[in-house]
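Worked Example 4.2. Consider the chain below.
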Amino acid sequence: MQEHHLSVTRTARYFTLGDPSGGVAEVWFVCHGYGQLAGRFLRHFEPLADGTRLLVAPEALSRFYLEDMTVPASERKVGATWMTREDRLSEIDDYVRYLDALHAEVFARVERASVTLHLFGYSQGTATACRWAARGAARVDRLILWAGEVPPDLDLAGAAERFRRLRLLFVLGRKDEYITPKIVAREEERLRSHGIPFEVKWFEGGHEIDAELLKELGQ
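Applying the procedure from the previous section yields the following C-alpha cells:
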C-alpha cells in the first residue's frame, strides 16, 4: 500500500464584523478553538466592532459532529478543528495557504498601509495563529495568544526574526486546567532563549474568554 496526496480546491467559510470600506484602522483575524465554529466565536468580539475595526473569523476546514450517534444528525452540534495528528503536516500547509488567500481577499478591499493587523488565536487556534505568523504571507503587527502556547514543534530559530517584529501577548487564566504554570514557565524560557520579547496578562478565570479583558485589549 502506498500513500498519496492530491491538492484540491475546496470552499472555506469565514465571517466578518465591520465595514472594510469605512476607513478602518485595524484588521483583526481571530482563530477559534477546537470544536468551535467561526460565526459563534466571532460573537465574543462584537464589543470591538466600533467602526474602527474589521474583524475576520476564518473557520477551520474540518468540521465534525460534537455529539455521538445517539443524537439525531439534525440535532447534533457541529464544530471544526484546524488539524488532527493524522496527516498533520498536510493540514498545516493547507490552512496556511487558506489564511494567505483570505488575507489577500481582505486586503484587496482594505488599504494595508493605513491599518494594523492583529492576529488573535484562542486555545487550538493559538497554534494556527503562530504557524501562520511564522510561515504565511501576512505581516502581523500584534499576535495575541489566548489560553494557548506557541506550538512546541514550531522552529523558533527560523521564525525569531518575524516574531521580534510583532508585539506578542499571552492572555492566560489562573484557573486554566490546560495551560499550567509549568507550561507557562517553559514557554517563557523558550522565547527568552531566542530573544523574542513578549507580555503576559492574567485574569481570574479558566480556559475561556474574559469579556472585560478582551475589551481592554481593544483599547
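The chain has six helices and nine strands. The chain has a mean pLDDT of 95. Compare this with Example 4.1 before moving on.
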